[in-house]
Amino acid sequence: MAESENIVAETAEKIFADLADAQTINRDEKGEWKAPLWQALSDAGLPLAWVGEDCGGSGASLAEGFSVLSAAGRFAVAVPLAETMLAGWLLAQAKIASPGDEMTVVPASPKDRITVNADGSLSGRARGVPFAKVAKHLAVLASDAKGDCSIALVDTGKCRIESGLSLGGDPSDIVTLDKVQPIAIKPAPAGFDQTRLMLMGGVTRSLQIAGALESMLEISVRYSNERVAFEKKISKFQAVQHNLARLAGESAAALAAATSAADAIANANSFDDEVFLEAVAAKIRCSEAAEKGGGIAHQVHGAIGFTIEHILHRYSLRALAWRDDFGSESYWAVELGKLVCKRGADELWPLVASR
Amino acid sequence: MTAALRFDPIRLPSECEQLRKEVRAFLAEEIAAGTFDPHQPNREDTDVPEFSRKVGARGWLGMTWPKKYGGHERSFLERYVVTEEMRVANAPTRRFFVADRQSGPVLLKYAPEHIKMEILPRICRGEICFAIGMSEPNSGSDLFAAKTRATKTDGGYLINGTKIWTSSAHIADYMIAIFRTSPPTKENRRHGLTQFLVKMKQPGIQVNPIGQITGQYEFNEVVFTDHFIPDDHVLGEIDGAWKQATSELAYERSGPERFLETYYVLTELVRAVGNKPDTRSAEGIGRLVAQVHTMRRMSVSVAGMLQAGKEPVVEASIVKDIGTIWEQQLPHRVRELAAFVEETATNRETLEKQLDFAIKTAPKLTIQGGTTEVLRGIIARGLGLR
């Protein structure tokens, strides 16, 4: 990890530690913690980390941005930081400057399509768009009748938004664009398509899930060393130890898969089958880890972890919810399986061993 | 963080890619020449001395060891590449694998110079085979319960007792074994074990084969009756083998052999499914590929830590724990998906035979080299729970 990468991630980590403590958030029913946190993140230039200085951002590297997302996952942060970073990154692909407020990306699911009409307006419907309700702007990827992709900046106020909530309790909305005129629209660079956007989103979510699992492991270990049952700490029971060892395994697998994918994307010269494998494998394996690891964390915590007062749900439910954004694990597994079969049996190992 | 687990995204350096090509070309030649059949993991005799010598001649044994002992002073990552290519091709590595992975490094660390000069170059040439004598009847994973006694005598030790589950003892030239030189103390039940280099095929050693449910014979019982071992065959500290044995195990636990032993069934499933899979097959294959990719990235990461001189004991244990469970479940998952394979798939018979063998192999995978339960104990200790 480069020195500068550490500094960006450390800045993020410090802001989260000061302003996004899970216990404080839990007690703040009105959500008053959100404004100061967003202000601090914006002051540090983090939401537009992936936007070049020429487009109004702070020009951090992809790797630096990814390390911010890992930290955001460790704090299970529920402000649209990842979404704004992704949106800024998408707009920057077409050299569209980013406004300095909350943004999100449309579409957020591989099967939803936004089309560019002949008059340059946009139409379509996208489900499960994270934080659309609170975003001031949308970064939209749309395609025209010929299949050519464009990237557009859209005022959220011009769209119809039906509110929804994710498993983790965060906005997950339906966005409908009915001949919406974008603020700016430009052709996407050659080779850039919806799959690219979904994979970038998928790796973002993978890092967040891996971070949430790190925190679940930490608080579960801590709790097991505090809670006494049958006259001893539950951490001394072999069955509990083995469950926590399995949680460590799932956390480790998620961390390895997500950081490997982020590293692959940050250093990719072209978007080939190998980068595809890295990105989808991360989403698949992290999603599986969220299910298995989250289950163990709750088991270790007993009934207390199931209560609204306890902080565990911040991590467990968000990790589960993040599985659904930018393509679920089953969606990507089908796509990966198709790719593997198309390449043929003798090309499987060379693909797996390519890096 | 309580448990600062690290799995940095280590990439294999470019010299590894050239080496990988060389290994693949070599294996393809050997397959073409009929030395072994990659589609027959269930062959009865996995000991192919000629193959070992060829691998040695290529410079792929003792890769990381000093040149003066016949080694090649290459990196752990280069060794990693050779290991995974051999494993995936189902190459007959039985004769040299244990010596290369484990016994050689132990000798390098603890053997007297003249023994190193005598034995290590022969390992590098692929001439000799090693076995590991740790388990005993009723001890198994509980290494410190070992009872086989080494009694001091003139110029050496007399060995009496029995080792068991000893892979390759029937073909081995040497064994590195732990024997009891003193009773355990009250303060330290690990005290009193010593590591020895045993020359096999000598008086006082009887090797009895133990059949396995796969139809193969790899395991043995090794009975020692007044077997003499000279003083210069003591490895390391008298009564202190426990310290040595635990660091040895880190090498044994994170390699690609810990998640690729049944990998062939996945390749064969992809072949049987063909290039236009139905949704169920595609999803099943996609998940398995995502999982094996993740395992491999973890394993490469640990190899990178070993290369950097670290001792990733917890990370290595995690790789072995989830790796062996994965390779154990793999044939069962492939079997479920194979139920939808067309009758006309040309490799259907091969796939079924391989599945039959892999399913029979599976139960041992989470036992060899430290059981799941023991590994989870080590991970729990690393998490600060014990």
Automatic annotation (TrEMBL), chain A:
The keyword Oxidoreductase applies. Signal peptide: none annotated. Keywords: FAD, Flavoprotein, Oxidoreductase. Its cofactor is FAD. It comes from the Bacteria. The keyword DNA repair does not apply. GO terms for molecular function: acyl-CoA dehydrogenase activity; flavin adenine dinucleotide binding. PANTHER family: ACYL-COA DEHYDROGENASE (PTHR43884), ACYL-COA DEHYDROGENASE FADE28 (PTHR43884:SF20). Belongs to the acyl-CoA dehydrogenase family. This is Acyl-CoA dehydrogenase. It comes from Bradyrhizobium icense.
From TrEMBL, chain B:
Signal peptide: none annotated. PROSITE patterns: ACYL_COA_DH_1. Residues 15-127 form the Acyl-CoA dehydrogenase/oxidase N-terminal domain. Its cofactor is FAD. It comes from the Bacteria. GO terms for cellular component: plasma membrane. GO terms for molecular function: acyl-CoA dehydrogenase activity; flavin adenine dinucleotide binding. Gene3D superfamilies: Acyl-CoA dehydrogenase/oxidase, N-terminal domain, Butyryl-CoA Dehydrogenase, subunit A, domain 2, Butyryl-CoA Dehydrogenase, subunit A, domain 3. Pfam families: Acyl-CoA_dh_M, Acyl-CoA_dh_N. Keywords: FAD, Flavoprotein, Oxidoreductase. Residues 131-226 form the Acyl-CoA oxidase/dehydrogenase middle domain. The keyword Nucleotide-binding does not apply. PANTHER family: ACYL-COA DEHYDROGENASE (PTHR43292), ACYL-COA DEHYDROGENASE FADE34 (PTHR43292:SF4). This is Acyl-CoA dehydrogenase. The lineage of its organism: Bacteria, Pseudomonadati, Pseudomonadota, Alphaproteobacteria, Hyphomicrobiales.
